[in-house]
Amino acid sequence: MLHKKNLLWLALVVAGSAQAQGDQRLSDLQVTANRLPQSQSDVMASTTVIDRADIERSQAGSIIDLLQGRAGIEIAQNGPLGTLSSLFMRGTESDHSLVLVDGVRINSATSGGASLEMLPLEAIERIEIVRGPRAAAYGADAIGGVIQVFTRRGAATGTQGGLKASTGSNDTHHESAWIATGDDDTRLNASLFHRDGDGFNATQADESGERDGFERAGAQLGLSHRVTDDVEVSVNALRQNFEGEYDNCGFPASQDCVTKGYLQSFGGQLAVQLQSDWQMLVTAGHFDEQREERRAGERQSLIESHRDEVGLQHRFTRDNGVDVLGIDYRQDSVDFNNRAGASYARDSRENVGIYAMMRRTYGAHEMSVALRYDDDSLFGDETTGSLGYAYQLTPYQRLGASIATAYKAPNLIDLYGPYGTNPSLEAETAENLEAFWAYERGGWQGRVTVFDNRIDDLISYAPVTYIPYNVDEARIRGVELSGGWQSGGLTLRASLTHQNPENRQTGERLLRRARTFGRLDADYALADWSFGATLRAAGDRRDTDFVTYGNTTVAGYGVVDLRTAWQVTSMIELSAKVENAFDKQYQRVDGYNTRDRYVEGGVTLRF
């Protein structure tokens, strides 16, 4: 397991992961959809924002629990906390969604997926989810959508801080500390966090009854400074070390498997107001992920994924909109070794992207246009775009429609990896149509979005050899319902997604994706007490049989979580929760267990 001294190392580092474009001090701003600050109500795309208050109120134990079942989002996980997770946004593949931390990509340079399970909630200030293709803004990978995580921010003025400790079932322990200080010009914040536990048995095939435990520890640091009225600079850093036990690795399959390593991102941003209507942003970022896999105590492989990126963006404010011009550069590389001495034929790639966006408002009418050109050193160039229109039907209702294209560049492991590869792979491409109706008045808000996403040249794998090739086509049609109501101390939030993620070659549903899933959160505050409950539910899913590798179906499920908190004094809060309150036995992936009823209690000190 990890040494707790790893908690301290980052407190000595002044660096950071590239901060997202725009000042986040205003809570109603959303910046992810179009890489510029917009009021949440003005964004055409289907979005969800989860702020720090939402995170603390939910008492979620991981980002997987926090996101599971929200509009358009399904997550599968192979066992307990820290084991491999797969994100399916709007029914697309697990590597079709772009994940950012403060503007820096954290998708792996090898597999293309992002290790969501490694992101610590203790270091997160805010999460923005944008559903639907965003390639015209970000380039490759954003076919299903974008999730951006913003780390903790310093207070505008004064000093704030907190300590939290909790303990739960299966000998689970959680400790964290956070402090922020600053004035109108300078803001500084830092956080430390640690969590460990015995977990539970990952697979049904393991009859030993042993538990697969985990430990993770890390730190986060952020600093911003306004040099003059027109110049501001900011840096952020996030690091998390992890170690987790799991089952079913290698051949023949072993139940004594361990993965350990770290995830870290660094970078910064320089914002310069060149003129009253002209702002320039310069960003830079670096990302690393290391994973060491061990079986029966012996190292099987060590893989490191690295990324460097820089960007330059100019924003021009108009009387009725904004224009954006930008260019970014990204370089990915991989270091790999295993017991067999295998290696990558090519272990790096570069990408240059140029993009332009325009937003205009004409009375009740709004239009958005974006175009981007990318040149990838391994597979060539790709042009993507989007066009959107919205109409303000009444002061409280809005209608809109959009069309967008997107693509997914072939992963390094498929092109030049140590196993079955195909250097001739083409990019996976997508075309998405969607329409929406949105309503917001008083304490009510709601949105209905209908979408149709066609994906061509999906990468599949040949039997026996597992060599990748372009063949599959998919069509994903669906409707998302999301909304909420707030009055007095009662807050209700709900989402429901119904979709048909279909393989157009076979007519079958895509693996591990439900046709219908949803989530309901209800919270009530009464004096110094708060009470809450969450229902997460999903229908059945097609899957691959854990034993025979044939087709199977995993049953649907419904899980209820309960929580409460008591504000004893202005500084002290006691909390308790029961996850899976009715001890539901269910699976997200065939052959892999999920957690039984889990009880946790904690204390938080704020100053």
From TrEMBL:
Signal peptide from the UniProt entry: 1-20
Topology within the bilayer: Multi-pass membrane protein
The cellular location(s) given in this protein's UniProt record come to:
Cell outer membrane
The TonB-dependent receptor plug domain is annotated at 40-146
| Domain TonB-dependent receptor-like beta-barrel, residue spans | 181-580
- Pfam families given in the database record: Plug, TonB_dep_Rec_b-barrel
Transmembrane portions of the chain: none
Q: Name one GO cellular component term.
A: cell outer membrane
What's in the keyword line of the UniProt record? Cell outer membrane, Ion transport, Membrane, Signal, TonB box, Transmembrane, Transmembrane beta strand, Transport
Name one process (GO BP) from the record: cobalamin transport
Q: Which InterPro entries match?
A: Beta-barrel_TonB (IPR000531), Beta-barrel_TonB_sf (IPR036942), Plug_dom (IPR012910), Plug_dom_sf (IPR037066), TonB-dep_rcpt-like (IPR039426)
Q: Which PROSITE patterns does the record cross-reference, listed alphabetically? A: TONB_DEPENDENT_REC_3
Name recorded for this polypeptide? Vitamin B12 transporter
Q: What is the lineage of its organism?
A: Bacteria, Pseudomonadati, Pseudomonadota, Gammaproteobacteria, Oceanospirillales
